[in-house]
Amino acid sequence: MLPFQEMGSALIGGSWVQASDGRHFDVANPFDATTLAQVADCGAHDAEAALSAASTAFDTWSTRTAAERSSLLLRWHDRLVQASETLARTISLELGKTIRDSRAEVSYGNGYVRWFAEEARRVYGTTIPSPFPGRQLFVTREPVGVVAIITPWNFPYAMLARKIAPALAAGCTVVVRPAEDTPLTALYAAQLAIDAGIPPGVINVAPSSRERVSELSDVWMRSDAVRKVSFTGSTPVGKGIAQRASTTLKRLSLELGGNAPFIVFDDADVDAAVQGAVAAKFRNSGQTCISPNRFFVHQDLCAAFTDKLTKAVSALSVGDPSLESTDIGPLVNAAAVDKVQAHVQDAVDKGAKLLFGGQRLPQWGPLFFQPTVLLGLTVGMRIFHEETFGPVIAVMPFSTEAEVLDTANQSQAGLAAYFYTRDSARIWRVGRRLRVGMVGVNEALISTEVAPFGGVKDSGYGREGSYLGLDDYLETKYMCLGGLSR
Ligand code: SIN
Question: Which among 119, 180, 255, 386 is annotated as catalytic?
Answer without folding.
Answer: 255
